[in-house]
UniProtKB/TrEMBL annotation:
It comes from Penicillium hordei. It comes from the Eukaryota. This is F-box domain-containing protein. InterPro entries: LRR_dom_sf.
Length: 398
């Protein structure tokens, strides 16, 4: 008589099919890489189910599950913090799950955390954290101490932080983060040079500033030594004189390569246009709201005998003035591309600009851009984002 096999054993053997670990890692990576093409929570749920199959599947997928946790759905943040940084008296886990986190985005959180919990969480994920975006409410000056220990950090976003934190305190906390390359400051920041000895991180190349400026100190302000990209977003009263005092700084005049002026600034060009861009000797990339072409004196075209700007890439975004309804004359743009903008080889136009630069004029403008491309050295073309006139897929974020 044949031996009867328990049905649960059959189900178990079918459910936990053994596969080589290398294949399981490949599958887990495929699920993880698919997050860009699906709703963000989807890949997270799939990886959770993947890790629940067996211990072998868990070991193959756990690094992908914790690499960039999605924490903006339901009680996911509570479950995550209870796992990564449980209460002090709870049993300590054998696996340091916090060390698996490399991307931590808390921007979608509002009242989910507290100042102490955010600080404790940073302390638990510090080992391999490369990207951190702070929450609006629960990031405070108390979070700077654990933040200073995140030695692998390359991208830090504080743009939503509501609590005013002195710039000197931020610089002190991040000054030893040798791998930090990009920093976004919040609109609650007061930008001033307080004379402290604390320096910027040595490899910081990209900086976004908001808030208010100590205008009188801006011409001699000490910017990061290797800064090449500067963005203005969420600034208070960034009027003509303030912008000129900032950009006339000797350091920025000679080293700044990329400049972004976002439409979310207040008081821009209230007292008239400015020719300050002509002072930026190394500027190659410029992103501005469409009508600022006039405020920055890029339109109308300069005297044909004058020197063209150094700009190679120009991106035009949604108008700063919501009531700006004037169509920009394509002939004015073409003339400028033949004169003061004669080095522009890439002209990006956001979808929100199509109302002021109609698509019917794009082919004509594109011809002038390609004339510039034909005159551009090959080595410079290789470094450009794109060539010709391009309608961007979406409006650039701040």
């Amino acid at each position: 008589m044949p031996k009867l096999v328990d049905s649960s054993e059959v189900m178990t053997s079918r459910r936990y099919v053994h596969l080589p670990t290398e294949i399981l890692i490949h599958i887990a990576k495929f699920i993880f890489d698919d997050w860009r093409d699906t709703d963000p929570p989807f890949f997270q749920v799939t990886l959770q189910r993947f890790c629940a199959v067996s211990r072998q599947w868990y070991s193959a997928g756990i690094e992908f599950l914790y690499y960039r946790p999605q924490l903006d759905e339901g009680n996911s943040f509570s479950l995550f913090t209870n796992t990564v940084c449980p209460p002090i008296r709870s049993r300590e886990r054998k696996v340091d799950l916090g060390s698996l986190v490399q991307v931590l985005n808390l921007e979608a959180l509002v009242h989910h955390s507290s100042n102490s919990l955010t600080a404790r969480l940073l302390g638990r994920v510090k080992k391999n954290l490369k990207t951190f975006a702070a929450p609006r409410i629960s990031f405070s000056i108390n979070s700077l101490a654990p933040l200073s220990k995140c030695k692998e950090l390359s991208y830090l976003c504080l743009s939503l932080v509501a609590e005013p934190i002195p710039l000197s305190a931020i610089k002190k906390a991040i000054s030893s983060l040798d791998k930090l390359q990009s920093l976004k400051l919040s609109s609650s920041t007061f930008i001033t040079d307080d004379g402290s000895s604390e320096g910027w991180p040595p490899n910081l190349t990209s900086l976004q500033v908001g808030g208010q400026f100590d205008v009188e100190k801006m011409s001699s302000f000490r910017w990061p030594a290797n800064l090449v990209s500067l963005s203005f977003c969420g600034c208070e009263d960034l009027d003509t004189s303030a912008l000129e005092q900032i950009l006339i700084n000797d350091q920025l005049r000679t080293t700044l390569i990329q400049l972004t002026i976002h439409r979310s600034n207040r008081g821009m060009f209230d007292v008239g246009p400015s020719a300050i861009l002509s002072e930026l000797l190394s500027l190659k990339s410029l992103r501005i709201p469409a009508e600022l072409l006039y405020d920055l004196l890029l339109l109308p075209a300069f005297d044909p005998m004058g020197s063209p700007t150094s700009i190679r890439e120009l991106e035009l975004t949604a108008p700063y003035d919501e009531n700006f309804a004037t169509n920009i004359d394509p002939d004015d743009i073409c003339k400028a591309l033949n004169m003061n903008l004669s080095r522009v080889c890439y002209l990006g136009i956001s979808p929100a600009c199509l109302g002021v630069i109609p698509e019917a004029s794009h082919a004509k403008i594109d011809k002038f851009v390609w004339k510039n491309i034909d005159k551009c050295p090959e080595e410079e073309l290789d470094s450009l984002f794109d060539l010709g006139l391009v309608v961007m897929d979406k409006e650039p974020l701040c």
